[in-house]
Amino acid sequence: MAESRKSPTPASSLSGDPFAPDDPFAPEEAGALERTARVGTVLIGVVAFWYAAILLTDAPEFILPPPDAVLASLIDDAGLLAENALTTISEILLGMLFGVTVGCATALAMAASAPVRRWMLPVLVASQAVPVYALAPVLVLWFGFGIWPKVVMATLIIYFPVTAAFFDGLRQADRQWIDLARSMGASRRDVLRLIRLPAALPSLASGIRIAAATAPIGAIVGEWIGASAGLAHVMNQSKAQSEEPRMFAALVAIAVIAVCLYFAVDRLLRLAVPWRAETT
Fold first, then answer.
1. pTM of the entire structure?
2. How many CB atoms lie within 10 A of CB 13?
């Protein structure tokens, strides 16, 4: 009589994902043609809604210029927009660098030391009660009209979500693993490095995704208050010169930068934290 053999439990049933990471039958990511079609559909929908809003509200061009006028400005003013976009992108990237670095350091300090945690948590919560946008004129007064007030604004907006997400992830490490490591003689530093940090990386990735979506806000608000370069500076000048199509073209450029930044960061985080299973 042949022995009954039990089939091994698939890895996907353990993670809750219907497909294992190495499952050959897992659906592949959308190809280039599908992605292009999806983006095109979204753009067509936005343009159609834009034209419909103009027709329904009968808005004059100085209130809501038509998409063809904005597209013409994007082409005619491409050099001006590209030059100022580099300034805005630099402010956003520097703000993300400083915000993520300081946020991670704060979260690690709070996780490693109870006194630091008791002192820092009220400060973090209280800092969110002060509108960051209200600090923009003060930052311009302190740092001038250069790049640094915008970098500080982006850093302040990024700092809290990164700190909160990373600290929450450090606190939610599996207690059984921590107890097992300590029973085997692991030090607090070993527990932090080998258990709590890897367990907290998915939470940190979520915080960085939020930072990527909100970082442009700090840079743009800073440029609105006072700047000599940047896309918001172009918007201010265009408004003063009654160049509404150029103003909307700069707004479109800001939106494109924000979307590209988010998906680039999301892609890098997927590569950096590949063990986070997705259930969708």
1. 0.76
2. 10
CA 137 to CA 146: how far, in whole Å?
A: 13
CA distance 48 to 62: 19
Tens of pLDDT, residues 5-27: 444 444 444 444 444 444 433 44
* Residue 166 tokens, joined: 């990373």
CB atoms within 10 A of CB 124: 17
Q: Which residue has the tokens 């983006």?
A: 39
**Which among 181, 163, 175 is positioned nearest to 199, based on CA atoms?**
175
Give yes or no for a contact between 150 and 219, defined as CB atoms under 8 angstroms apart. yes
Neighbours of 270 (CB within 10 A): 12
**Angle of helix 231-240 relative to helix 78-112, nearest 10 degrees?**
130
Can you say whether the dihedral through the CA atoms of 124, 129, 134, 138 is positive or negative? negative
CATH number of 65-272: 1.10.3720.10
Q: Which DSSP string do the residues of 188-219 spell out, in sequence order?
A: HHHHIIIIIHHHHHHHHHHHHHHHHHHHHHHH
Please tell me the least confidently modeled range out of 9-18, 35-44, 161-170. 9-18
**Calpha distance 220→261 (Å, rounded):** 15
Question: Where in the chain are the domains?
Answer: 32-64, 65-272
H/E stretch holding 88: helix 78-112
Segment 120-156, tens digit of pLDDT: 888 887 777 777 777 777 887 888 777 888 888 888 8
What amino acid occupies position 261? L
